[in-house]
Structure formats: structure tokens, C-alpha cells
Amino acid sequence: MGLRKPAVAGQFYASNQEQCFSEIRECLGDGIITVPLPESIAGGIVPHAGWVFSGTLAAMVFSAIKHVNREVDTFVIFGAAHRYVGSTGVVYQGQGWETPIGSIDIDTELADKIVETGLAMSNAQIHGPEHSIEVQVPFIQYLFPEARIVPIIVPPVSNAIDLGDEVGGIISVETKKKIVCIASTDLTHYGPRYGFYPQGTGQEALRWAKEVNDMEFIELALKMKAGRAIESAEENASACGPGAAAALISAMKRLGKTEGKLLAHTHSCEVMQSMYNQTSEESVGYAAIVY
Question: Is the residue at 140 inside a domain?
């Protein structure tokens, strides 16, 4: 397997290197962290919409990791399964991924160990159209130019919890490199466009989506209740990547973490109002969390 080519460059983020750098710097500049950070960060949850909407929150997580850990050798990125409907995780074991910034290598040794657990399979083709991992990679390339990645698509099944636990176990005995885990998920997709608007439409409905529906999932993530996070997302349509989040939470538990820290929480309509003074009947929630 060769290099995976970008699927959403020019759509979710810039398609050329110079503009990509400019957008990343803008996201980092806007993502001011106002809460105390833990002494070490083993993982984080990031959103994966277009950078204009959620890039600032994703940047906050990577910036926090950079501030606390300085250098990271490998990022394990648990991605949402938007198209894949299988019952196991899917690891990319190819040569690397290409973005407008350049190429980033796969940590093949770690990828092999994860596949060997039997809780994930290797399939490059399934990764081809999935954007939830891709939109994180340029942030890693910019802030951690020597780092490698292990991309894993994780469907919302109970297997995700076992997979995360195994990944955490592998990391816990690693002495030669610093490994950090990332989970990629957006939150409530609310409004007629998404076919989910139990509170009707309007600003009160969008407030409910953020303050009630999103927050139930966020609280479960912060309290590290992996199984309930998957169930809640399925019951309430509160996250599109609950399997990825559950795997991350399970890995964090295995690594001795006891709670997450919320850095920021917003939704796409708030971003539109802030940036363009426009409103909408729809919103998608975004959260930035570290462990």
C-alpha cells in the first residue's frame, strides 16, 4: 500500500500548503485555552467539520498536547465511521498519508500490534473517503513534524471499548516513544436538514441541542463512561463518532486517567453568528476535550 491521498482537501480545509499553513495558524490563534491543563495529556477528543467551523476547537486540543507534552512520537487517531458499517475497527497499515502539507508516515510497528489483537482489521480502501481522521492530520504535521500516525476507523459497537483497552495496554508498556490517542467526533446534528429536530426549530431548539443533548454525551465522556456514551449517542443522536470516543475513553482508563477536561464547546450556528452574523435552523455540535 502506498500513500493515502487527501479526500476532502479543498472542501473541509485548504488544498495547497501555503493556505493550509495560514488556516492552521488562524485556528491556533483563535483557540485560546482558558482552563488549567493537566500535568500530562494522554489523549483528546476533537471535532471534524470543516476548519472554518470546528478547526479552532481541534486546534485547541493539539495545542494543549503540544504545550504539555512538547513532543509526541505517534498519534493513534480513532475516527468516526461515516460510511463503514462493519463490526470491528479498521487500521490503515500503508506507507503513509498525504496532505497539502506533505506526507506523514504510519507507525507500522504499532499498527501491526493493534491488528494482531484481533479487534481491528487492516483495510486501506475503507479509509479512502473517510474525512474524520484526515482533517486532523495537518494539525499534527504542523505542530509535531516528526510524529507518525496510526489511523483507526471505529464503528459504534461494543467492540470499540475492547479495542481501546487493548490499545491502552499496548501504549502502557511502551518505553521508547511517546504515544497520544485522539478521537474524532462531532456532536448533535440538529435540524430539518439532518432529519433530527425533536424540539422543533429556532434558537430555543438549538440551545436544547447544545445545552442538553450535547452535554449529556460530553458529561459521559468527561466521566469516562465509554459504554454509556455509545448508548446515549445511539438513543439521542448526540454524536456521529461514539465508537471512536468510546475507544479513546477506554484507552485513557487503561492508562490511568480518571476524568476528562472540557476545553470548549460550541456549535456551527454559533460559529456562523460570530463570524458572519448569520443564523440557521441547523447546527452541529463540537467539543474539545483532553485527558
Answer: yes
Domain contains 240: yes
pLDDT tens profile 121-178: 999 999 999 999 999 999 999 999 999 999 999 999 999 999 999 999 999 999 999 9
Q: What is the pLDDT of residues 85-98, one digit of tens each?
A: 999 999 999 999 99
Q: Which domain holds residue 197?
A: 22-290
Q: Is residue 203 part of a domain?
A: yes
Residue 64 belongs to some domain of the structure: yes
Q: How many domains does the chain have?
A: 1
Give the domain CATH number at 235: 3.40.830.10
Global pTM reads 0.97
Secondary structure of the chain in HEC code, one letter for each residue: CCEECCCCECCCECCCHHHHHHHHHHHHHHCCCCCCCCCCCCEEEECCCCHHHHHHHHHHHHHHHHHHHCCCCEEEEEECCCCCCCCCEEECCCCEEEECCEEEEECHHHHHHHHHCCCEEECHHHHCCCCCCHHHHHHHHHHCCCCEEEEEECCCCCHHHHHHHHHHHHHHCCCCCCEEEEEECCECEEEHHHCECCCCCCHHHHHHHHHHHHHHHHHHHHCCCHHHHHHHHHHHCCECCHHHHHHHHHHHHHCCCCCCEEEEEEEHHHHHHHHHCCCCCCEEEEEEEEC
Stretches in the chain below the pLDDT threshold 50: none
At 250 the pLDDT is 98
